[in-house]
Backbone:
């Protein structure tokens, strides 16, 4: 590029084109690129919106046709509801009286009230 012939060649090339033509071609090129980017972004947004709508619609259709098993669970605890829904071994829940009746003559007790009661059993230790 430092060769004097190259400098003359560049000077001739730049003098052949008027500065207005260079500005106009640069502006036209920049505007064309900006329009192309805008069209690409618009197309991408449209495709993304359509995809979201299609997925939401398909999910709505699938969920609306799925069978929903409704049981009357008013007043029942979640543990009882789960036991009723399972198809395995049936579970029998003991009442407080039934639990205490299983340990006759032993020092046992229930501490607490309602569903938060805890069973306490004492072992018989020989006195020293």
Residues:
């Amino acid at each position: 590029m430092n060769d004097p012939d190259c400098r003359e060649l560049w000077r001739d090339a730049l003098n052949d084109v008027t500065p207005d033509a260079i500005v106009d071609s640069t502006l036209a090129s920049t505007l064309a690129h900006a329009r192309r980017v805008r069209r690409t972004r618009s197309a991408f947004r449209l495709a993304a919106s359509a995809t979201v709508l299609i997925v939401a619609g398909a999910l709505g259709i699938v969920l609306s046709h799925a069978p929903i098993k409704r049981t009357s669970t008013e007043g029942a605890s979640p543990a009882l509801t789960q036991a009723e829904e399972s198809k395995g071994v049936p579970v029998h829940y003991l009442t407080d009286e039934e639990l205490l009746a299983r340990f006759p003559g032993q020092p046992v007790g229930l501490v607490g009230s309602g569903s938060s009661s805890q069973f306490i059993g004492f072992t018989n230790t020989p006195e020293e």
In short: The chain has a mean pLDDT of 77.
